[in-house]
Amino acid sequence: MTISRNARLILAALLGVGLAFIYVPLTVVVINSFNSSRTFSWPPSELTTKWWAKAIENTGVREALKWSILAGLSATAIALLLGTALAFAVSRYDFFGREVISLLVVLPISLPGVVTGIALNNAFTKQLGMSTGLLTVVIGHATFCIVVVYNNAVARLRRMGTSLQEASMDLGANGITTFRLITLPNMASALFAGGLLAFGLSFDEIVVTTFTAGPGIQTLPIWIYNNLFRPNQAPIVNVVAATLVFLSIVPIYLSQRLSSDSSTGGRF
Amino acid sequence: MLQEISNTMHKKPKLRLVALLTAPILWLVVAYLGALATLLVAAFFTIDSFTGNVIQTFNLGNFHDMFTDAAYKNVVLRTVGIALLVTVVCTVLAIPMAFYMAKIAKPRSQKILVALILTPLWASYLVKIYAWRTMLEPGNGVLDWLLGPLGFSSPGFGGPAIIIGLSYLWLPYMILPIYAGLERLPNNLLDASGDLGAHNWHTFRRIVLPLIFPSLVAGSMFTFSLSLGDYITATIIGGKLQMLGNVVYQNFSINLPFAATIATIPVTIMAIYLWMVRRTGALASL
Prior knowledge:
The complex is a heterodimer. Chain A is 75% helix and 0% strand. By secondary structure, chain A is mainly α. The longest helix of chain A is centred in the first third of the chain and has 34 residues, at 59-92. The two termini of chain A are 28 Å apart. The model of chain A is unreliable at 260-268 (pLDDT under 50). By secondary structure, chain B is mainly α. Chain B has two domains: 2-42; 70-280, MetI-like fold (Orthogonal Bundle), CATH 1.10.3720. Chain B is built from 13 helices and two strands; from the N terminus they run ααββααααααααααα. In chain B, β1 and β2 (54-55) form a beta hairpin. Chain B is globular.
């Protein structure tokens, strides 16, 4: 390589600045969760773990976490079924409108969340007369989660080809057995990555949730948003925020362990 | 029984296709596109100013109001301006970072760096904007504490804060496609350019930049479109400043048809943007 020493140093410095830009705010969030002051003050005069103990006991947080996990798991399950079915159809069959499918699945995450949100709210409450609740949240989340499962599944199916299935069928296994013993195991890691990403999207979603949840349900992001501007809740919000920062390492760790074709999680 | 189903399915590929497609197509076309279409139709309705009920007669009144009121024109221009600036900021920050990761870092540190860029993507959106609230807080925020001694002060909450916050949120979405593009770029092209006497900067501008252009476009689709529809960031760190999303959000509960009318703007801008991207051919070569 012909890159001069100076250029290397400059690039390394810029990378450092960029990483500082990314990580300083996240570090502040973590430190702030140990800030003993009830109202925001920086730098912290004293560090304490008492807010962590308070947050664990907080019923609002527990309830919100429960809703988030419930909605996330349900949306992920639906997205896995629909996304995989669609991926099989697109990569193994030829049919009218096949090219439009990839555009159709990506639409729910490409359009602004507020547009999807008010469209779904209008359809649910005004057109269908449904009341908002867990069901409407799950439908909304599943809609934009399909694409990540679909992308991962399509990529894997393309790489797998059809020869393994054909070999299995030639050796006398029927369609179901072939799917169970050959196709599914070969797709497992791609589906896991897609499912993980779908759960992550759902767990973090706030805009579509705002319009589909109604007053009865607070997911974790909704809880944070509702408590963000309440000064006496600030210490608890800080702890929840710090926890979410720590949790973001888990999926990265899992995907590094899998180290499959989807190091970027199939987003690109 | 299962055996029979399996055999029938195997003999009839059409039936298999129908079984695979029915549920997802019903979901995406009927439920999702149906909801979008209903919203679009509502944009042409009005509300009874007395009862607040939607009157379902077709008219262009909302569009007339939207195009003649200077306030909405300002919001549109401001929002597009912010989305463009965020894209520029992300691009400028991302290129050197991605270049170091792809072309200078050793394989081992490369892997760690990619993980470091990916991790914040999984950190909560709200937490990241909340973090910037504590950073930017005028007077006792972290920025004032860090940069105060150097003579700088926090810009406070407002337009610059929104640009910082959104750039922060979407930066990884710009770094990763550029990194992927640079990884595919053969090193010997850079060597050849250098051997022929080009300096670093010249090589970058004439060789690297044109070849990673599709990656830049891919990244910009995230940074631009995600900024265009955002309203949470503006609410938390934007002070009194409003973006298009805020206007949609506020009108949603009082005048749904008008909210739907405003919502057509970001959708139209995105459609035009996608069309322009297609024309550059950047998507095909990704």
